[in-house]
Amino acid sequence: MLVKDIMAANVPVFKISVSVAAAKQEMMKQSSRYFAAEDNDRRWKGMVSDIDIKKAEESEDNFISDIMKTDMITAHPLDSAEELSGVFYQNNLEYIPIIEEDRIIGLVTEKEMLHTLVRLTGAHQPSSKLEIKVINKAGQLAEVAAIIKEHHINIQSVLVYPCQNDEEKVLVFRLATMNPLPVIQHLNDEGYTVLGPVR
Amino acid sequence: MNEPLFIYSENLLDYKFHDSHPFNQLRVKLTYDLLKASGHLSDTSVVKPRKASDEEIMLIHDKGYIEAVKKAGEGSLSSDIAGNYGLGTEDTPSFKGMHDAGAWIVGATLTAADLVMEGKTKHALSLSGGLHHGFRGKASGFCIYNDSSIVIEYIRRKYGVRVLYVDSDAHHGDGVQWAFYDDSDVCTLSIHETGRYLFPGTGNVHEKGQGSGYGFSFNVPVDAFTEDESWLHCYETSLLEVADYFKPDVIVTQNGADAHCYDPLTHLSVTMKTYEAMPRLAKKIADRYCGGRWIATGGGGYDIWRVVPRAWANIWLAMNGIQESGNLPAEWLAKWSRESPVELPRTWSDSPDIYTPIPRKPEITAKNEDTLAKTLYSIRSLKKKNG
Fold first, then answer.
1. From the CA of B359, how many Å to the nearest CA of chain A?
2. Cβ of A125 under 8 Å from any chain B Cβ?
3. Can you identify the CATH homologous superfamily of domain A3-118?
4. ipTM > 0.95 (yes/no)
5. How far apart are CA B165 and CA B213, in angstroms?
6. Which terminus of chain B is more solvent-facing, meaning fewer CB atoms within 10 Å of its CB: N or C?
7. In whole angstroms, what separates CA B126 from the centre of its chain?
């Protein structure tokens, strides 16, 4: 999954030469929290937030160029989404502008980043979740998947979790079925430990 | 006009995937029979359903999907295409005449709605319905056509009223929630087992609606092994507060009976006590806010012998203001004991020792209380603000 697949396009823009007073007026019409600042050649110069604009003084010589943030971490549309989540985490960011050849083409906020990770777990599609404890060795995922295949059940997503100890792993499947009982029975019969709710 | 009405005919039982599928509409007949045998259902209270038209099903579903269901029921849909529509899967296998079977169930629930909305009765019961997982263009979770969503859209368009949908199936009422997620005239309340393990996985507290529908979707996901006391506390508190906040014109309830400790597909621990209490509160709410207008459907329920007949009979008893206790009718027990693979219960109520005590009870109760407070936070803070 790439950044271009998860970003919000159409970021609202102010020219850097716009006065703070005018920006305040214009901002009222928008529901956005973050605005890009561009020069007359549509080159991206920086970002301002709704709060930056609200707080800024409305004097005659106060322009967007005076209040915008310029020294920012940006990303490219072809960066990977997983990588971007690391950038968010390490730098404690609220949002990242997506820049391609001096132009701003999108924005990813923390909220969208989180939603993307939720989507990657498959949690938004109707499914039953199965957690299976397996020995930490090659081929386990394939063996479990083969059992699920025998039941003609579509797999919505798979995650592989490390366990507290090195000897085991937990495989998490989201299965497109409301009745996982036959699969669970089959896995138990094959000697796998299927984790479930605790009484 | 105050006599409640029961929608029933044998062709509603044609919704049948295959003999070993957990979804079995024989439970509707078992319930009908139980009420007959106990003398609480007279022929004059039974209304035959009509079949829903394609246009009515299209209030919610895509035309292409309906065509696919028709073809699947004739055996002329390729398995690749069927898969895209969620058909021909383990959950919703194709069967002969599946479109008609689904359309009759939708028609039964629409029949119930018309009877209530036209003032012919205050309460109507459509037990074959409540297929709340069906999506616009996809079958899901044993559901082909979502009669719950269709009836709500039908009532909204035809009668222009605001609908409160209350879903107490053990599984989240996802199809209905997403169908009206951005609609402020339809309020959905679903209480269910958390999606931590259980299908469909959604129904979190933070799913509150979007756009103008924000704040009109409520979810109470309770912990696995929740018992009567905590389940009923969550159900009663949320229903009372949501109804008082939304002030509906009509209530549609989905009465899945799969939260019972005997149900094979879920991990909850409620007993018949819950199924006696829930419809009685629903009636109270309908009487208080909606001039009595209440349309009730069935839903999930996979212990069709020991749980569903008694649980669903209680909806009808609640509609009629009757309380049953003591033994089940001998005639019913004699007739169905021969067919049942498990021993049938002898009494209307469950004894409290039908399951082993739950060691985590205090922790589960506290967790549910916390969830409930989060679900109702927006309503409570609004109430505080307005004094």
1. 6
2. yes
3. CBS-domain (3.10.580.10)
4. no
5. 14
6. C
7. 10
